[in-house]
């Protein structure tokens, strides 16, 4: 609902940021309401920072290293899924650049754009908490089992290496493109254990290809921007429901990919951008797969070993 409403306001360029606040809060709610509430300021700050650092490779790299540490350390309490979804939109924006919001011909500066974007993220997060309080009171499972510290240390180090290197290359030579999907994929695919990472590699690959292709076809058929946003919103709602139902990750990936593509669609270049996202996803998957293979070779094949 807030996604569609904002589409008809001057804030419409930031409409996709509703999802950036909603998803981590919704996933946090499945553990406990306090995690949902805590995710809101984190998501808002990260998205604001991503807008500010755009175009500055060194600062962008440092931000992604900070995000890698945040996601990795959150695994100590098995909250890395919440942290990951708080980080994926900033990973995209830091490379592709922030959307531009204008009010009656007046365009705020960079700081203003960052504040507006953060505000939209907060709206999305609060909306998810409100829906959780009304409809999902009995869906909180409590804090998950923590991940052992040695595995967290290795997982964090891997994320720092992968995200730091990928962010520097993407922000230096691919700034203003959809190369942020390499970072997004690393965040989603790399998991604390080998078994989890291998599973995510397979599911993410197939789900991204199917979701991006489906979204590209729909966006080319439907030319009305409001309808495209509505379809993207429906796709994200389906993705959220699948996550709440603990459905297979591949199905979730299909719909969440379709939602992101549709909510960022822009007319005739949808097919090209969809293809780029698939290619960048394959790059991210490949990087994680190489790290998993090398780590298993060096450290052994224990299923409890870290990525």
How would you describe this protein?
The chain has 307 residues and is mostly helical. Helix content is 75%, strand content 0%. The protein has twelve helices and no strands. α2 packs parallel to α10. It is globular. The C terminus is likely disordered.
What is shown here, in short?
The protein contains 12 helices and no strands. By secondary structure, the chain is an all-alpha fold.
Question: What order do the helices and strands come in, and which of them pair?
Answer:
Elements: H1 2-7, H2 17-29, H3 33-53, H4 57-74, H5 80-96, H6 110-135, H7 149-173, H8 180-189, H9 194-221, H10 225-244, H11 249-263, H12 270-299
Helix pairs in contact: 2-3, 2-5, 2-6, 2-10, 3-4, 3-5, 3-6, 4-5, 4-7, 5-8, 7-8, 8-12, 9-11, 9-12, 10-11
Number of strands: 0
- Report Rg: 18 Å
Distance N to C terminus: 39 Å
**Hey, roughly how much beta strand do the residues contain?**
under 5%
DSSP helical segment count: 12
Alpha-beta content class = mainly alpha
Q: What's the average pLDDT?
A: 86
Helix content: over 70%
The sequence of SSEs as H and E is HHHHHHHHHHHH
Which residue ranges are poorly predicted, with pLDDT under 50 across at least 5 consecutive positions? 302-306
Q: Major β-sheet, in short? A: none
The backbone outline, from C-alpha atoms, is: globular
Key phrases:
307 residues; globular; disordered C terminus
């Amino acid at each position: 609902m807030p996604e569609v409403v904002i589409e008809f306001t001057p804030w419409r360029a930031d409409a996709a940021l509703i999802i950036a606040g909603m998803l981590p809060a919704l996933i946090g709610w499945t553990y406990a309401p306090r995690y949902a509430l805590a995710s809101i300021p984190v998501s808002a700050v990260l998205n604001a920072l991503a807008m500010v650092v755009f175009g500055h490779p060194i600062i962008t790299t440092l931000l992604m290293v900070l995000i890698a540490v945040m996601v990795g350390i959150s695994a100590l309490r098995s909250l890395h899924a919440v942290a990951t979804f708080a980080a994926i939109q900033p990973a995209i924006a830091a490379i592709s650049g922030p959307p531009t919001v204008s009010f009656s011909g007046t365009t705020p500066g960079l700081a203003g754009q960052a504040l507006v974007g953060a505000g939209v993220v907060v709206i999305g997060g609060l909306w998810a908490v409100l829906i959780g309080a009304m409809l999902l009171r009995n869906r909180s499972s409590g804090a998950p089992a923590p991940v052992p510290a040695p595995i967290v240390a290795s997982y964090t180090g891997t994320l720092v290496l992968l995200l730091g290197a990928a962010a520097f290359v993407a922000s230096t030579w691919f700034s203003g493109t959809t190369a942020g999907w390499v970072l997004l994929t690393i965040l989603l695919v790399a998991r604390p254990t080998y078994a989890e990472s291998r599973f995510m590699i397979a599911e993410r690959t197939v789900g991204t290809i199917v979701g991006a292709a489906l979204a590209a076809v729909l966006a080319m058929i439907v030319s009305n921007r409001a309808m495209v946003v509505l379809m993207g919103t429906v796709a994200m709602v389906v993705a959220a429901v699948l996550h709440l139902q603990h459905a297979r990750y591949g199905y979730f990936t299909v719909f969440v990919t379709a939602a992101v593509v549709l909510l960022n669609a822009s007319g005739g270049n949808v097919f090209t951008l969809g293809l780029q996202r698939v290619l960048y996803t394959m790059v991210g998957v490949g990087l994680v797969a190489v790290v998993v293979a090398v780590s298993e070779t060096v450290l052994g094949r224990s299923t409890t070993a870290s990525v």
